[in-house]
Design brief:
By secondary structure, the chain is of the alpha+beta class. This is Secreted protein.
Length: 201
Amino acid sequence: MKKILPAVALAALLAGCASERTTTAPTDQFLKNIAAYCGKAFAGQVVANEPHTAGPDPFAGRRLVMHVRGCAEPTRELRIPFHVGNDRSRTWILTRTAAGLQLKHDHRHRDGSEDPVTMYGGHTREGGTPVRQEFPVDPESVSLFRRQELTASVDNTWAMEIYPERIFAYELTRPDGRRFRVEFDLSRPVEPPPAPWGYGS
């Protein structure tokens, strides 16, 4: 019996090491959860928009569709166009980095040229979870917002959530109480829309 115990202990130790090696980081599982929908599109609706900003609401009365489209390297980068009616100017870009996950907003004009306010976003500061990741604004984006006199945005925090087969959500919050959130129904795919502006066919 004495000869068996060390072998059992060694096997348990090796199993534990293997388990640690194969554990998926929350950021990687988050990307994997979204990548499972590559090629599919889903309709959504705004569920929070507080406080309402002055002027016309660009989302009111328009069909909102997200499309998991850019999946050439799904474990490293995903591109998700967000269509607002016929406006195809927005694409969310999620990129895996050595430190976590980065979110950028690619804004284009109809001719494919870049908007003056584009490629802004943030980077995770903590591991997050497989279903929710938060992206506090990064220094480059703060500089961009200040140059463009968008001072309210220098405190932005974006978030994304995915509950497989249920909901994908995009959210923007600020310390002043600003909260915008749109949710997409993952249980009901819709016909994929055309390519976003600047991305070809």
